Amino acid sequence: MTQPKHTHPLGYVQHTAKQLKDYWFLILLAVWQWDHLTTTWRVVAVLAMVTWLLIWPLLKWLTLTYQLTATAIVVNSGIFVRHHRHIPYSRLQTVQRKQWFYLRPFHLETLQIETASHQDGEPEVQLPAVPLTVADTLERYRRASYHPLSPDAPAPQPATTTPASNNGLGAVQQRYVTNRHTLLLFALTSTGIIPLLLVLLAIYGKLPHKWVDLLVADAQHFALPLLIGGAVALLIIAWLGALIWVLIRYYRFTLTRTPDQLQIAKGLFQRNTITAPLNRVQAVRTKQNILRQWLHLQTVQVLLASKAATDDDDHDLVILPAIAQQQLYSTLHPFIDWVPGVVPQLEHLIVPQHARWLLSRNAVLVVALPVVLLGWLVRPWGWLGLLLIPFAILQGQFAAHNTGGSLLTHQLLVLQTGHFWTRETFFVPREQIQSLQLNWSVWMVKRQLAHLTVNVRHGNHNQAIELRYISAKQAQNIYDWYQGQ
Amino acid sequence: MQTTTQSLPPRIKRIWGYSALGSFLALLVITGLLWLAHTYWHWTVWLAVFGGILTVIEPTIEAALIPYRYRFSRYQITSLAVEIQSGWLFKKRVAIPIARVQNVTLNAGPLLQWQHLTQVTVATAATSHTIEGLELDVAAQLREQIMRLAQEARHDPA
């Protein structure tokens, strides 16, 4: 491709859809105010709306062009201010291909490209509705940039047809497809119900007051059963919603490994394919909330230096959404070589017996002020807040019980934490630790305790992995190991 | 405390002293404004009283802690790593290998410029750490060292 190309005309539809999604309230506003407007203002409003919602996306579509050169992808965009973005293939972090079901018959998809630059907000390059061949070509150029040919060899000339077999990824070494049973368990134990509940409550808040008043008037006859019934119904709806949401998002989740890349494909209505180079993985995290601990179910994520996974849990790319604990290490090891093939022993960086109560004490200190305020201001029901105190004590013990870590090899540190009823285990290669910190207070010196913080990059930010109240001697050992290059 | 670590340049104490004086003056102005607000707009007098107490206490504590702050702020720069220590009640010690350093920023406000010192911020791909004051030539040397190492090891960690 030597000439800059426009995206497919369906790209205009995508731009328009996005604009409508972002500014739908303008239409509502116009309809609502319609009767109060004079004819002139009506014309102005309609014209402004057409310009902003239909013509502006058209201009956006017209000004967006892309070009794949031998060394870099070049993207030109911008209506008033022209941007020319030049990204060498060797700098690509993740390539994300999103295909809505209505784009499938046209062999089109949305392509998103990320590098490791420290930019927030939008993905660096987004090409809506480009042919599938673009991503395949990009992939081949990128692989060529990993294995530079000898200088006298001709520049790689990728074919423009799609080899249906391997997606242009190279030899497939490993493949994993989630099974339906574990995915269902995973969806059932999702905590996604909480945001959905909030949304439902917000919708309730937006309902016209007349309806609510009517409902309350009706409710006076059989208030309590209705209230309880309503609450239960709300919970069930939220829970089902969360369940279906997870099932749609992780539909036919597939993880594939080629010699130098990981590829994840998932989703029902929008098929989302993410490719990330293995040597850009900053750390691996396994995670389970307390419900999944009872079911022995784990989630595995990789920490990457790009924002490709902003829809995922904690913005880190999920590579195994739900896997039985016994199979975790034997399944994961073939995909990421440096993660051990067996369950690691984490006996070194643990919280000593005599320090366990400190974690509970701190948790109680955190909730103490809200509990007192609540009890004081909302009498008598506010004192129910006292229930938070045993909850905090248990959380402290949960943290103490789950904190652990070990130097697995001279190059690999394993750390485990227990925050908010969630156990997380991190596998961090030494060369990906950005900095390492020890903290201790005067009182901790006497008890020979210290906090250890390991800083790793994730997304555009820092992931601080903190082990609190571990033995000072062991923490110092890790510090010395990190320093002794 | 290891003997290899170095203290900050002693002149930093003078700067901290002036900065305590600065907070005193700023707080004094705020208290004055609160007093005026009380006189003209009948704001509660307790705001001004609270401001007054803070004006006395905060700079006093800041000034009183200077010897401790100085004694327990240390740093070490070797060919492999930068190490920073600070605090006594809550002690902190951080190690940043030079190979992980992405950039070095030298910052100097008017006070530091006047004493020919500079604040040095070392940033990695994930975090950034600050040494509160260094001699200009030490800072420049650190910057050179990191630039050189960065050129030698041009493989991208991120």
Automatic annotation (TrEMBL), chain A:
<feature type="domain" description="YdbS-like PH">
    <location>
        <begin position="250"/>
        <end position="315"/>
    </location>
</feature>
<keyword id="KW-0812">Transmembrane</keyword>
<feature type="domain" description="YdbS-like PH">
    <location>
        <begin position="410"/>
        <end position="482"/>
    </location>
</feature>
<keyword id="KW-1133">Transmembrane helix</keyword>
<dbReference type="Pfam" id="PF03703">
    <property type="entry name" value="bPH_2"/>
</dbReference>
<protein>
    <recommendedName>
        <fullName>YdbS-like PH domain-containing protein</fullName>
    </recommendedName>
</protein>
<dbReference type="InterPro" id="IPR014529">
    <property type="entry name" value="UCP026631"/>
</dbReference>
<keyword id="KW-0472">Membrane</keyword>
<feature type="transmembrane region" description="Helical">
    <location>
        <begin position="224"/>
        <end position="248"/>
    </location>
</feature>
<dbReference type="InterPro" id="IPR005182">
    <property type="entry name" value="YdbS-like_PH"/>
</dbReference>
<feature type="transmembrane region" description="Helical">
    <location>
        <begin position="183"/>
        <end position="204"/>
    </location>
</feature>
<feature type="transmembrane region" description="Helical">
    <location>
        <begin position="358"/>
        <end position="377"/>
    </location>
</feature>
<feature type="domain" description="YdbS-like PH">
    <location>
        <begin position="61"/>
        <end position="141"/>
    </location>
</feature>
<feature type="transmembrane region" description="Helical">
    <location>
        <begin position="39"/>
        <end position="58"/>
    </location>
</feature>
TrEMBL record, chain B:
<feature type="transmembrane region" description="Helical">
    <location>
        <begin position="15"/>
        <end position="37"/>
    </location>
</feature>
<feature type="transmembrane region" description="Helical">
    <location>
        <begin position="43"/>
        <end position="66"/>
    </location>
</feature>
<feature type="domain" description="YdbS-like PH">
    <location>
        <begin position="70"/>
        <end position="146"/>
    </location>
</feature>
<keyword id="KW-0472">Membrane</keyword>
<dbReference type="Pfam" id="PF03703">
    <property type="entry name" value="bPH_2"/>
</dbReference>
<keyword id="KW-0812">Transmembrane</keyword>
<keyword id="KW-1133">Transmembrane helix</keyword>
<protein>
    <recommendedName>
        <fullName>YdbS-like PH domain-containing protein</fullName>
    </recommendedName>
</protein>
<dbReference type="InterPro" id="IPR005182">
    <property type="entry name" value="YdbS-like_PH"/>
</dbReference>
